[in-house]
Design a protein that fits this description.
Number of strands: 29
Distance between the termini: 54 Å
Largest sheet: 4 strands, antiparallel
Helix content: 40-55%
């Protein structure tokens, strides 16, 4: 076995082996229970980031675990056409050639996008494979492939026929840069510095005016009313009067509405139905007209009068100047505003009255709510159901049309003569109303999330009645980030229940964000992005996967640093080095296990416990606990204790004991490899294939071997005794460290214990001697509290003592160093205790900071006790 593990030679070799042998592809004729997941389809424009790495690592752990547990697993992959993003990418490529999509024309432009997709769109699929994702690539789908395009048309037509899709004028989010409508959740809102502008609206026939405070004075040209709260006594006399709209001269009513906040600005609200969501709703309830003064390019319309053609922000300045000239501008003040920007190009979004296609969401949302409330779909952790409920309870009708070219074109056709709308899978030859042959298809495409909402069943072949659909729908689990619960999860629930009459997934595991080591969101502008592919190249896929898994606690963001990945790379190396030792440790016996020693029984008991704990953690989706159990068993128990003791038998024991120890080592290693395969697939496959055949099942690969089961043996008593031995060894090591006793010094140790325990310890003094270098004797009685020149430490119901006479080279120097260390430790503890008694710190500091401070204080307290003991013993020492 090579001296060092080389992940670069291992990973591609085994991934190709798995694919070639079709281990990722389920058998449709199998009698095994099905387990299915659909991948959250990454954008074809995307490249692997840490969010993808975490999401797909979790899914792969589940897929591999379920295969090993005897399920027929389908993990179905694919990519999303990403309408706006992909169109933007190709338009930028055209711009380099001095072309626009309009110059190219729709048909030629779509050809260019398909060409780009074929050349670059599969990049992320290659990257997912590098991550070890065991998806069934034979079933890979794309949201605009033939089958899914058919599904989109079928879904649209059903919704239309059932009266759940309509076309109408409605206020929508509009991006003037991308020139398309955006869903609410495609708008990124953040608090930004802005201003409040105070404008005077003269009251008709009077010398008085009402002052309005607004953040967007350019929209005032489209005002059709001003409103006050009906209970605001300041404005009672203005009810049912009219104001004159400044700069326009239009007569607009003063209305009352409970939506108006008396505390905001002056308590007077301008109503601009065509450019504000709330104003639009007020206008509908009060039967007010809507006047559009900003167009789709972000420029002022003809309705804006003298400001026509100006950019909306330039118009703002010109309007303020004009108001000042007329004495109608009062003042400005700084004000923090919630500003929405396009999630793709970051342009400030314009609320705009527009003719769009919409899905009526209320009846669909009610079913999606009920399904979760009744437990048909379960969120893990449950805390995320709150956001899901809130979204569905407050969901507006879903604007599904987009004014771009790349996407599923809306299957609606218009008669140019009578205006009749026909929704069809194919272009009708003539109007079914007036028989005209002048038919034109709608120019818009569907929102990308419309096709994504069908993903759990369209990818399985719907609307055809496929075997995949029959076996694997509903899917078993969805793994996704919390940020798309509203974008995607809720919509899949609505569409799955509407079309399939059944939930699209039984469980939804929601993971949080991957942040940097300080908890900051990763971004290129901050320069704190960690590229997963760089980490794979440098440390290996298994190290990255294990790091992400170990740090993924339910409901908490993952704080990641390269140092952590490097740290877990050491764990991967530890597995390799332990395996290398085991393979060279001696020839195993073919007779099975010989009589077992206490350490054999202990490690087998620990293995049983670890199998039980890891399986429980995986079933509960507690991935960090799963990873931690694996780590602790391999490093802290198998390597630090059992392998160290095994070296005694292999190098100093008789031949039979050497063989038996080799048997136990191989037996434990083989089970450990299967136990940890779901999270670290590459190194486990590499080592497992080197294990002798009689120690593993007759399988071609570890990924199709069984997940290890707990053995029936019971060694509880022996395991408890061995835990006491561990504590004795640890105590001896601590005393040697605390008193700077070198390894070359001969030590004599006394162990006081009860007669029963003492007899057991006496049998294995060779273990204590081998691990500590101490000559130990067992005394079956209680120790004297103070024995001259002896360090005595209590260990459970036992005690360990080492006579340090003659072992301390410079007693005075050791006392001086201990006194200095004690003073420093006491000062540090005093500082921490003041922090912990500070109510301000306790109330404001994050819980993890408080826990860390408490832990540091506890360690310092123990350190102080050791130093005080050392000073006392050395001061009283004779000679």
């Amino acid at each position: 076995m090579e001296k060092a593990y080389n992940h670069k030679e291992t990973e591609d070799k085994w991934y190709s082996f798995w694919e070639k042998n079709k281990f990722f592809t389920p058998n449709l004729n199998s009698k095994k229970p099905p387990f299915s997941m659909v991948i959250p389809p990454p954008n074809v424009t995307g490249s692997l980031h840490m969010g993808h790495a975490l999401n797909n690592t979790i899914q792969d752990i589940v897929a591999r675990y379920k295969r090993m547990k005897g399920f027929e697993v389908l993990w179905l992959p694919g990519t999303d056409h990403a309408g706006i993003a992909t169109q933007n990418v190709v338009e930028r490529e055209l711009a380099k050639e001095g072309l626009t999509r309009e110059e190219l024309g729709r048909e030629k432009f779509i050809e260019r996008v398909w060409k780009w997709k074929e050349e670059y769109g599969n990049r992320i699929i290659y990257q997912l494979k590098k991550l070890g994702s065991s998806c069934d690539w034979t079933r890979e789908r794309f949201t605009m492939d033939g089958g899914l395009s058919l599904a989109v048309k079928e879904a649209f037509i059903r919704l239309w026929n059932d009266g759940l899709i309509y076309r109408g004028d409605y206020i929508i989010n509009w991006c003037p840069r991308c020139k398309t409508a955006l869903a609410d959740i495609e708008v990124e809102s953040s608090q930004e510095n802005g201003k409040l502008y105070y404008i005077r609206y003269p009251i008709e026939g009077e010398k008085e005016y009402l002052t309005v405070a607004t953040t967007r004075p350019e929209t005032m040209l489209g005002d059709t009313a001003i409103a006050v709260n009906p209970g605001d006594e300041r404005y009672l006399k203005y009810h049912e009067k009219y104001a004159i709209l400044p700069l326009v001269g239009r007569r607009i009513p003063v209305i009352t509405h409970p939506y108006v906040e008396e505390e905001f600005g002056t308590g007077v609200l301008k109503i601009t139905p065509a450019h504000d969501f709330n104003d639009f709703e007020i206008a509908k309830s009060c039967n007010l007209p809507a006047i559009k003064v900003i167009d789709e390019e972000g420029k002022m319309t003809r309705e804006a009068g003298e400001f026509e053609g100006l950019d909306r922000f330039s118009a703002r300045e010109k309007i303020i100047e004009a108001l000042r000239e007329k004495g109608l501008f009062e003042r400005t003040e700084n004000y923090e505003i919630l500003l929405g920007r396009c999630y793709r190009c970051k342009t400030v979004v314009e609320p705009l009255l527009s003719k769009q296609w919409f899905v009526k969401t209320k009846p669909l949302a009610e079913e999606a709510l009920k399904a979760v409330q009744e437990g048909k779909t379960v969120f893990i952790p449950e805390m995320w159901t709150g956001g899901y409920y809130h979204w569905l309870n407050n969901m507006r009708d879903w604007c599904i049309s987009r004014q771009i070219w790349w996407g599923h074109r809306i299957p609606a056709y218009y008669c140019s003569d009578c205006g009749n709308i026909m929704v069809r899978k194919t272009t009708p030859k003539k109007c079914n109303n007036c028989k005209s042959e002048r038919i034109k298809q709608d120019e818009d495409v569907l929102d990308t999330w419309f096709s994504s909402a069908l993903w759990p069943f369209s990818t399985l072949g719907w609307p055809k009645k496929t075997k995949d659909l029959k076996i694997f729908y509903p899917t078993s689990l969805l793994v996704t980030g919390f940020d798309i619960i509203t974008f995607w999860v809720a919509r899949m629930m609505m569409m799955g229940l509407y079309i399939m009459k059944e939930v699209p997934f039984r469980k939804v595991y929601i993971h949080a964000l991957v942040r940097d080591a300080t908890g900051q969101k990763m971004s290129k502008t901050k320069g704190n992005v960690i590229d997963p592919l760089d980490m794979v190249e440098k440390y290996g896929t298994d190290a990255l996967r294990f790091t992400l898994t170990a740090m993924t606690a339910q409901g908490r963001d993952t704080k990641l640093s390269e140092e952590r990945i490097e740290g877990y790379k050491h764990f991967i190396n530890k597995i390799w080095n332990a395996s290398r030792f085991i393979f060279t440790a001696g020839k195993p016996s073919e007779d099975g296990f010989q009589p077992l020693t206490i350490e054999d029984k202990w490690i087998l008991t620990k293995l049983n416990e670890t199998i039980e704990k890891t399986e429980r953690a995986l079933e509960k989706y507690e991935f960090n606990i799963y990873a931690q159990e694996i780590y602790n068993f391999l490093w802290k128990e198998f390597c630090d204790w059992y392998i160290e003791i095994a070296k005694y038998h292999i190098y100093k024991g008789d031949e039979e004991k050497c063989k038996n120890t080799s048997n136990i080592l191989l037996y434990v290693l083989e089970k450990f490899l299967r136990l940890s395969h779901p999270v670290i697939p590459f190194i486990t496959e590499e080592i497992w294939n080197r294990i002798p055949e009689n120690f593993k099942s007759n399988r071609k690969s570890i990924m199709i071997a069984d997940f290890p089961q707990k053995d029936e043996y019971e060694f509880k008593t022996e395991a408890e005794v061995f835990e006491k031995i561990k504590k004795i060894v640890t105590t001896i090591r601590n005393i040697k460290s605390d008193y700077n006793i070198g390894e070359e010094r001969e030590i004599f140790c006394k162990i006081w214990a009860s007669e029963n325990i003492g007899k057991e310890i006496n049998k294995v003094l060779y273990i204590i001697s081998h691990l500590t270098g101490a000559n130990a004797e067992v005394i079956c009685e209680k120790p004297t509290k103070d024995i001259l020149n002896t360090v005595i430490r209590e260990v459970d119901d036992m005690a360990v003592g080492i006579n340090i006479e003659g072992l301390i080279i410079n007693r005075e120097n050791e006392i001086k160093k201990a006194q200095e260390a004690l003073k420093k430790a006491e000062e540090e503890l005093s500082f921490l205790m003041k922090k912990l008694s500070n109510e301000n710190f306790i109330s404001k500091a994050p819980e993890e900071v408080i826990r860390k401070t408490e832990m540091e204080a506890g360690l310092l307290s123990e350190r102080i006790k050791v130093l005080q003991e050392k000073i006392k013993i050395l001061s009283e020492m004779k000679g």
